[in-house]
Design brief:
Number of strands: 0
Helix content: 55-70%
Distance between the termini: 61 Å
Low-confidence stretches: none
CATH topology: Vanadium-containing Chloroperoxidase, domain 2
Strand content: under 5%
Radius of gyration: 19 Å
Amino acid sequence: MSAENPPAGPVEARLADRLSRLPRAPGPGRSAAVALLRRLGRLDQRAYDAVAGWSAPVLDVPLRELSHVANFSKPWLITAGCLAVAGGPTGRRAALTGVAAIAVTSLVVNQPLKLAGNRARPDREGSGVPQRRWVRMPTSSSFPSGHSASAAAFAVAVGDVCPPLRVPLGISAATVGFSRVYTGVHYPGDVLVGATVGVGLGLLTTRAARHLVPVPKVG
């Protein structure tokens, strides 16, 4: 199937189909992996449908606006700007590390991973996501979530330099990830994998930053 018409449905089911079609004779290990992937795919769809059917009108506008504002990592770039201006040397280091983490994560997620995932966006109308929650449906592959990946990478990278910011940034990143499911533009699996990738790349970025620009010793 072409990139212009990516397959619909949870990516786990697609991986199961690919694995089951491998030329080798199926063994017990592969059979178990296929069954697990299909089960995860069903859980992914059920979780998406459950969020779609969850009625919490008080959250509709805030989460819709948050999901929209998070386009192009705007909240994280604004936070980085504030840290650079008002945070002193530590704030500037945190800002640079956070922006670098976003750049690395965006490159990895929005190029090779989304091309490899090639997953159609959810059918939010068919699943009953209320239109009052909707944001513009992206045209890119659904898997993994770039918003979730960038948010997690920034939270990890900045939190490593400024530990007091770990919890508020972590909560903010998780809320952005949930908003992508709540507005119907991602499956939960997209968000979980995106966040996991973001955490990993955020950690790699902080390690590289420490190596390239060692933290000065105090005293």
